[in-house]
Amino acid sequence: MPPASSFAQQPRFVRLGETGRPVVTILVDGTAVPAFVGDTLLVAVLTHFGKLRRSEFGGTARAGFCLMAACQDCWVWTETGERLRACDTPVKAGLAILTEQPDASWPTRA
Amino acid sequence: MADPRVIIIGAGPAGVRAAETLVDAGLRPIVVDEDARDGGQIYRRQPEGFTRPQSALYGSETARAQALHTTFDRLKGRIDYRRRHLAWNIANGHVHLVSDGAASAVPYDALIIAAGATDRLMPVKGWDYAGTYSLGAAQIALKAQAASIGRRVVFMGTGPLLQLVASQYVQAGAEVVALLDTTPFLTQVKALPRLIARPAVLLRGMKLVAGLKLSGIAIHRGVTPLEIHGDAETGVSGVSVRLDSGEIRRFDCDAIGLGYHLRPETQLADLARCDFEFDAKSRQFWPTLDIDGRSRINGVYLAGDGARTQGADGAEISGRLAAFAALADLSLRVPEQRVSALRIAAKRMERFREGIAAAFPWPDFLAKAIPDETIVCRCEGITARELRGVALEKTAHELNRAKAFSRVGMGRCQGRYCGHAAAEIISAAVGAPLETIGRLRGQAPVKPLSISTRSVLT
Amino acid sequence: MSEVTRTDVIVIGGGIMGAATAFFLRKRGIAVALIERGLIGQQASGTNFGNVRRQGRYLKQLPLANRSREIWGRLQELLGEDVEFLPSGHLRLAYNDEMTAKIEDYTGQARHYGLDLEIISGNALRDRFPFVGPEVRAGSYSPHDGHANPRLAAPAFGRAAKRIGAAVFENTEIVVVEKAGDEFRVEAADGRLLYAPQLLISAGAWGNRLSTQFGEPVPLTAHGPQMAVTEPLPYAILPVIGVASGIPHEVVYLRQVKRGNIVFGGGGRGPASADTSRANVLPENTLSQFTQISRLVPALNRLNIIRVWSGVESYLPDDIPIMGPSAKVAGLHYAFGFCGHGFQLGPGVGDVMAELIATGKTETPIEPFAISRFRNTKDVALPS
Predict the structure, then answer these.
(1) Mean pLDDT by 10 residues, chain B (458 residues)
(2) What's C371's DSSP letter?
(3) Contact B234/A10, CB-based, under 8 Å?
(4) Residue B282 phi/psi, 5° resolution?
(5) What residues of chain C lie within 8 A of the CB of A105, using their CB?
(6) Quick check: B441 contacting C, CB < 8 Å?
(7) ipTM exceeding 0.90?
(8) Are C223 and C213 in contact (CB under 8 A)?
């Protein structure tokens, strides 16, 4: 599997304002990424990268769809194996997420 | 009797006005919302720390939005407000809630479901590429996060939201490439008389379009969406449509806001065992309701866009009516004149809704031409070919049967974004009337539920 | 003018039992009409867990289960369709000494029926199946058991039966069924009349309504499986997993499909009605299952379920199905009431019933399932 960082590096969302908020740092695929307090996880990721996850069927990059917790297309994995819905998860310091599916070792990882 | 227990699911315009009505009558309803703040979608509040004035968020609806938020803030001390609680199931006179992994079952004497709506989608080839969003999503990105969904955005579909979101993006300084409406200009003109039911709204809509024209973005009506271009890694790169002239044109973009008006969120109504009926004009099934929002199940009421997609103003009226109906059914006094006035207003809202449906019709005609390789079910990656295959080769003419064989509607979103289109595709493929295809039955949980959820005694 | 069908066998009830029987009758060159009030495989056959296991069965059922397993192995070839049968093994797990003794005892007895099971102790189990939780003390492994897709299997049998000449009538309610002289006469709601010298009642939770009409009522009750499914995960859990507990809420089971979703169920039955054809998953059962499956595979704790479902299954008080010839009426046969464990047996039941109907006897012992065992039952419950 190619390293996540080599794909979809172009930011997707464009901030149109509200950049005076306090900064909070999260980890995305191991990379420290600055976000603002009040960002959703989805916006925090997509203002730096182009994707949140891949479709399990076909592997197409996905970046959310409805932004209102209806489509369920924005679920991401945390580094410790939890599931978060990115569009309605507010960012907080220390959040560490992965944009690639874990492999078949997922049931035995800590 | 002891104070009747009323639960309201949804703190958008319908739920808030229902809560207000009940509080005014001396009750203390439980108000449940999955989100952290009240307002629903249309009056979604920006997070703490944002500085934009409300007028930047709500435009012509600012006064109404403010009134709603003020009302709710005032109500908070007099209701049992369960924010960030998901109603994941309804069974045996109880609403089943979960919040932060803690599950509880709350009994009710009356239940008002004001679960809102989502965009209604018709698939187009390539809509599964990253960068395709619903129109609602494009609006939420702007309203709630001060962000544009992309550097160069195309808006495509139909409905009042199409024009509104495009206009909001232009005003906010985002780059909008084009507005592509599937409804021909003539169809919209013909429906104008029906929209006279709400002249102020009609006028606002017309001003909006005029403003958009002035902004210089390309506006096309009567288009046929052909394909969203892109690739599996970097997402959307453009969209091609057939213009009403017959010419095929491509618009380069990195984001698309796509939507065809709204569809009600009906899963909770399903779990509450409400009856549904087919509406031929809007080509969908919706819950059977009386003018006040009573379902066929005693004690269960529906209000807002989750009942009929009338928009925020209609939601406020139907929220009040549902609450009055609940009070009346609990043998409590209701102000008859007020209810009568609300019913008159509700009828006007319903006429307007029908006008909108006629002015911006759901493009069922696109279903039969959707290329075989188009993904219909985004969650499961099921193509039109696979869906048509089970309909034709396995005689799966009914939607739940087609789901069982093809997996369309089996994914995380449980058919929210593929259900209506799948029914149209099957109808077109087998030549059977849409009504006979049926609708996807809602099942619990209403949204994905974590296996770490544990019961707590409340 | 009503349509009239004259055939060799009428099968009432298009679940996996009826559809498989129709198929195997056709394989024997016998004319058959299969009548289903809804769509083939819509009820219990389409909503069950999908277990294709012999391990853990009531021992006297193993000959039938073995015969069925042999057919599962060549089902794709037989039916020309993939029903996603995966012989990926079955693990029956134990939390304590009592359960361990139970699986050891079963292993010893099952061997006499040709079912070879392997007892694995806790740590060795975790070496081989690293996802198994720390509470698990031991397990018995049945390498050739597995699972399949219940939504696909019965309909595939129905289509295959039709392809080889069965007359299949879906969306067809029966209004009258009776024996008139040497033949059975069935009248459908649309006016169609069917006549045959032999009749099979494979109508699941509705079977006892029909058996009662022939003077053979049985105390059948309807209950619903309590099923749930997760979002898709990378495929990592191969065997189907069950628990050898005597405590009902602990008896959960799970399986991962190749697409990655994990299906689970058990821990108790839910309400179902043959009158309304409705069945429900009780929310408290779902929550209880969460706790129990997390004991088996702790990693599941972090996942989400996306859907629950149930269906109308039929049960007899002794947990044994009704299968075999009528004790009262010549030419009448039964195959219903499979107590939530019929899916694996389906192909075998079809093959055995076809053999029985065609030749008058079967090699596979089915006497324990005879309807006559209820002949003296005083309190036969009314259809529920």
Answers:
(1) 90 98 98 96 94 92 96 97 98 97 98 98 98 98 97 97 95 96 93 84 85 90 98 97 98 98 97 98 97 98 98 97 98 97 97 94 98 98 98 95 98 98 98 98 96 89
(2) G
(3) yes
(4) -100, 0
(5) 236
(6) no
(7) yes
(8) no
